[in-house]
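Dear colleague,

Thank you for sharing your sequence with our group. We've completed the structure prediction you requested, and as agreed, I am returning the results in plain text so they can be pasted directly into your records. Please verify that the sequence below matches your submission; if there's any discrepancy, let me know and we will rerun it promptly.
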Amino acid sequence: MKKLFIIIGVLVAAGIAAFFIFKTPKQAVDKEAQMKQRNLSVEFRETGSVSPRNRLEIKPPFAGRIEEILVNEGNAVKRGQIIVWMSSSERAAMTDAARAMGESEYERWLNIYKPTPIVAPMNGFIILRNKEPGQTITAADAILVMADDLIIESNVDETDLRYIKIGNKLKMYLDAYPDDTFEGIVEHIAYESTVVSNVTVYMIKIRPVQKPAVFRAGMTATITVTAESKEDAWSIPNNFITDSRGKKTVLVKNNRAVETREIKTGITDGRFTEVLSGLSKSDTVVTLTAKAKEKAKSFMSAGPPGRR
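Please find the predicted structure tokens below.
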């Protein structure tokens, strides 16, 4: 009997509290909303970098002196195009000695002992000019560095790899140009993993849809991957939803009262959440003012009659 009395007291207190809060609903309600159709998507981001698909260092076949470099950084070159004229150490020594003997002798030796051309081994463009004419170099020194194309490389966590497929279109951003958006297509997913900071990742390669002039090797990039999406989903803003003990509820305006209603949700993009059941299109969900929430909290914390 005592237990029954306590239960009744709690229900009475709750009823009084509800009446106290909602007897002036315009003052108790903070915000209102109704379900609307929205395009929702779940996205995650990965960090990557701009890298050459194929990077090739142009080195001389012998030690000697650079006589002339015919290209600069950013220049497009074709396979077989002469890009550097090079003198071997012997030619450099002989032509220097001939110069000391006079201009005619120097010209004679230049015609006898021709410089060696260095040609581009592939189609591409110059990304680094590492040396200048007149420098003496060895066969191990790179005069130029060229690339055939610039792509985005990114390490993706193995748990996210299921959302990425060859041919997927992704959005990309560069730290150097944060206001610009670029599109890319996934062209390769590594078959072998690597471990970075104790996380198993797979390298993916992304080809830009267009070749942006602003791309530079080594730039930091961010790629956005869409894990899930749904068009025209009936949804409400997240701040109207309360998650308690695994159940999601909302406050619904009902004439001059407000009732709590449990709902079933679907996809969320972090701002809006799809409502699968529990609400109709005509329902109005609300949030309470801070003052109304505080009144409800203090009224309920006082306990049922007979226990104060």
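Summary note from our side: The first helix runs from residue 2 to 22.

Kind regards,
the structure core
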